[in-house]
Amino acid sequence: MRAWELRKPGIDGLTLVERAPPRPGPGEALVRIAAVSLNYRDLAIVRDPISRGIALPRIPCSDAAGEVLAVGPGVTRVAPGDRVMSCFFQAWEAGPITPQAMASALGGPIDGVLAEEVVLREGGLTPIPSHLSFAEAASLPCAALTAWHALVESGRIRPGETVLCLGTGGVSAFAIQIARLVGGQPIVVSSSAAKLERAGPLGAAATIDRSTRPDWEKAVLELTRGVGVDHVVEVGGGGTLARSIEATRIGGHIALIGILAAGQIDPTPLMRKSIRLHGIYVGSRVMQEAMVRAFEAAELRPLVDRRFRVEEAPDAFRALERAEHMGKIVIEL
Fold first, then answer.
1. 118 forms bridges with which residues in the sheet?
2. d(Cα 54, Cα 43) in Å, to the nearest integer?
3. What is the pTM of this model?
4. Topology of 2-139+302-332 in CATH?
5. If we measure between CA atoms, which residue out of 144, 166, 154 comes closest to residue 259?
6. Cα distance from N-terminal residue to C-terminal residue, the chain
């Protein structure tokens, strides 16, 4: 069976190879992969696996959807023919995250899913929402679950609460949809007028073009009558966190998702405003199952921006690198 291996740092280090078909062991399932979606983390690993301590060769990517082909001894949660999607952490089923869970992240410490067939733990799989295609379902395990964890599991968002979404990438696009799903009011900041126009149908209550409002944090305060937002889905990190703090209400909640820009933070405003800052790293299988039920009940569909054939995987990574997309980039197998 075919698989993509990262054999040296950089997109040019991706190599399409033939591997022996894997076989499931006890507690495992063999899955025929139909679609894989890309996350910024996948690109970061491909660019620089060495500093992350990732041994090469490594099959990249964490997010996939497909069909169970066979199961190993003792498997009861899935059966051949089931439509399933991967869990980002193969060993985080429920409860708080642990070092063991952290070491089970697909496409990093262990091989990922950019292959025609993969073996995954039965506890590291969940059903696909019945109304979604494989390509749509493959978009959910990392980006959607991160947004779900940030707003629902950690933020305990309530109807009518405001949510600041920075940008329109995978996590931010899902944050818009999930916030609207539970009755929240998403405010979206982007430098692209075209992407902001697409944010409206996703559920944005208001948009801010930072190319015309570089002081976007003040624009957020204006929209909230000087109070600030209830929640921030913070994907920029050091480069934007100080502004997000300014835009958050007293007693508000910031879910820190990514570190896309360098910078240092003065913690004093966090303390003075009693803001809760929570680092979010995807989520557990139980969280993913809850998210699946919510998506299925609402028939919510993710935004798939571009699709590539498996042979075009390096081109998909280059498209992700250009950051021209909105929503998810998917490789179909």
1. 31
2. 14
3. 0.94
4. Quinone Oxidoreductase; Chain A, domain 1 (3.90.180)
5. 166
6. 11
